[in-house]
Design goal:
- This protein has about 450 residues and is an alpha+beta fold.
- Helix content is about 30%, strand content about 25%.
- It contains 13 helices and 15 strands.
- Strands 6-9-10-15-14-13-12-11 form an eight-stranded mixed beta sheet. The chain has a five-stranded mixed β-barrel with strand order 1-2-3-5-4.
- A hairpin with a 7-residue loop joins strand 4 and strand 5.
- Bound molecules: 4-amino-1,4-dioxobutan-2-aminium adenosine-5'-monophosphate (4AD) and magnesium ion.
Length: about 450
């Protein structure tokens, strides 16, 4: 049975017989023997293999082994004389599965730009950086489930197809029920896709929150973790058309409880990833952004800043600098404003609360003055908004009024209003943009490089 390279690097002992499988990163031919470095994706470092010319089929194997070729090696572990590695494999047998023609294989031993790598999305996961990103992404997902499971939250699966626009922003992708069985493949691009889903307008979900609220009214504490979709045509380094969101929803909880949970949650994820992926995090710090480790430290050990939107506006007006977008009570914060607060002023995650009613969604709880709602956004350096959440409106009459005010039809939300009719409680939740988290943690400049298959305007290749 083949062993994972990460385990061998950590605990492998000289004289152990091992088999490894993976892809060749580098090959160095010497007189009478060759070195190859084999990587199986389990860690940044590969395992060095020394192949002596006495190994059966040596000449042929060495000819076929080049960067990118797939290989299985059996042999024994021996102490390594090479720098930076404790052990290596002395090969007894080498089997080449597939060659990678050096004339055409695009990933050669040099640094490629991320723009170039996006053009070869099917191969880029084999690079050091994208490998580290996807291992950290996995570690974040694991830490998220662990955090909620440890506290008794139920993971609920909310639908991708929906009839309601949770955010009321109209940024939905419409779904068609067109049956393409009768249409030849070659003609499928010409078809009229405007027909809706079996006669009822249906969309890809922008958020699982409304359904999570349903489940929280039965299980108290729940969370969702799944893909969400936004038909916003923003070609920025922080927006995707398809992204993953984590949305906890807690019954018997107010905005303070919501903020406390969000802060503990982010701290837990960073702590966990630092413990499970130290090499990858050090790599990001050395090669991508030299503030990555300091940022992790800052998240884990510093209390987040908390201030109201009204105070944030005052801070921005007194910043002594001009922003591209106007700063005025009642206008939404732009990412330059968010970054000023978190990056320059407070230099740590900053929670802004109590936004103007006018600029927020219908479900947020109205404050007594009716000018603001009990909303909170968590802003972080370099990214801006990473979490958006609120206490929800639990009063039937107020919610009905807010739905009408926003030009929506209460009849479409009868089931949501029922939750306020039967056993309503104060409740709250938030949504974490999963890719923004991974981007923030790794220091990667573009959100398209932290999701294996980015979907943004004009980027859907396969
Ligand atoms: O602030 P948003 O729109 O909030 C909601 O959807 C609420 N229903 C969440 C809740 O209370 N349960 O989105 C939440 C987060 C944002 O803070 C941001 O991190 C991320 O989702 N996000 C995006 N990430 C990538 N690409 C996009 N186009 C995003 N839009 C939002
Ligand atoms: Mg938001």
């Amino acid at each position: 049975m083949a062993r994972r390279i990460v385990e061998l690097l950590r605990t492998g002992q000289p004289d152990e017989s091992v088999t490894i499988q993976g892809w060749v990163r580098t090959k160095r031919e010497q007189k009478g023997f060759s070195f190859i470095e084999v990587n199986d994706g389990s860690s940044m470092a590969g395992l060095q293999v020394v192949i002596n010319q006495t190994v059966p089929g040596y000449e042929e194997a060495i000819k076929r082994l080049s960067t990118g070729a797939s290989v299985e090696v059996s042999g024994v572990l021996v102490p390594s004389l090479g720098k930076g590695q404790r052990i290596e494999v002395k090969a007894d047998s080498v089997a080449v599965f597939g060659e990678a023609d050096p004339e055409t294989y695009p990933l050669q031993k040099k640094r490629h730009s991320f723009e170039f790598l996006r053009e070869i999305g099917h191969l880029r996961s084999r690079t050091n950086t994208l490998g580290a990103v996807f291992r950290v992404r996995n570690a974040c997902a694991t830490a998220i489930h662990q955090f909620f499971q440890d506290q008794g939250f139920l993971w609920v699966h909310t639908p991708v197809l929906t009839a309601s626009d949770c955010e009321g922003a109209g940024e939905m992708f419409a779904v068609t029920s067109l049956n393409l069985k009768q249409v030849p493949m070659t003609a499928q691009k010409e078809v009229d896709y405007s027909k809706d889903f079996f006669g009822k307008p249906t969309y890809l979900t922008v958020s699982g929150q409304l359904e999570a609220e349903i489940m929280a009214m039965a299980f108290s504490n729940v969370y969702t973790f799944g893909p969400t979709f936004r038909a916003e045509n923003s070609n920025t380094s922080r927006h995707l058309a398809e992204f993953w969101m984590v949305e906890p929803e807690m019954a018997f909880c107010d905005l303070e409880g919501d903020m406390d949970l969000a802060e503990a949650f982010l701290k837990h994820i960073f702590k966990q990833v630092m413990a499970t992926c130290p090499e990858d995090m050090e790599f990001f710090n050395a090669r991508i952004d030299n503030s990555v480790l300091a940022t992790a430290e800052n998240i884990i050990n510093t209390e987040f800043e908390r201030l109201t939107y009204t105070d944030a506006i005052a801070q921005l007006q007194n910043a002594g600098k001009t922003f591209e977008y106007p700063v005025e009570w009642g206008l939404d914060l732009q990412s330059e404003h968010e970054r000023y607060l978190a990056e320059e002023l407070f230099k740590k995650p900053t929670i802004v609360t109590d936004y103007p009613t006018e600029i927020k969604a219908f479900y947020m709880r109205l404050s007594d003055d009716e000018q603001t709602v009990r909303a909170m956004d968590i802003l972080v350096p370099k990214i801006g908004e990473i979490i958006g959440g609120s206490q929800r409106e639990e009063r039937l009459d107020v919610l009905e009024r807010r739905i009408r005010q926003q030009g929506l039809d209460p009849a479409d939300y009868w089931w949501y209003l029922d939750l306020r009719r039967y056993g309503t409680v104060p409740h709250a939740g938030f949504g974490l943009g999963f890719e923004r988290l991974v981007q923030f943690m790794t220091g990667m400049g573009n959100i398209r490089d932290v999701i294996p298959f980015p979907r943004a305007p004009l980027s859907v290749e396969f």
